[in-house]
Each structure stands twice: as structure tokens, then as C-alpha cells.
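Hi everyone, sorry if this is the wrong subforum. Our group has a chain we'd like a structural model of before ordering constructs, and none of us has done structure prediction before. Sequence below.
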Amino acid sequence: MRDLITEALGQLATLVIGLLLLAWWLGGPGLTAVAWGAGDRTYALGLLATWATVTALYFVASRLIRRALRARR
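Answer:
Right subforum, don't worry. Here is the predicted structure as C-alpha cells:
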């Protein structure tokens, strides 16, 4: 029973992380398009630059974490 609950919670966590990543990938450019369409080009470019920076940092951090976990094994 405990294994079943652990597996279900793991699947739920994977689902939540997947939905957050999907929202991130669609939300960043989507908000930029809305701001650009409203005529605030400076804000739109700043938003897109921030989104791109955070995304790049995420990729770097995930790669470093993966390498550290592999090195521990």
C-alpha cells in the first residue's frame, strides 16, 4: 500500500511539474505578444528578455544538477 501511494505521489508531482513547464513555455511568449499588441514595446521586450534569461538559467541548473547526481552514483 505504501509503495502504491509513493508511486501515485511521484506521478502527481511529475504531472504538476509538466503542467508548470507547459504554462511557462506558452505563457512567456504569450504575455509578450499581448504586451506588444497593446503597444508597450519596451515592456514586451523586457518581459521576453527576462523570460529567456530565466529559461536559460533553468537549463544550466538542470544540467548541473543532473551531472552532480550522476557523479554521486
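For your construct planning: The mean pLDDT is 90. The chain has one domain: 2-72.
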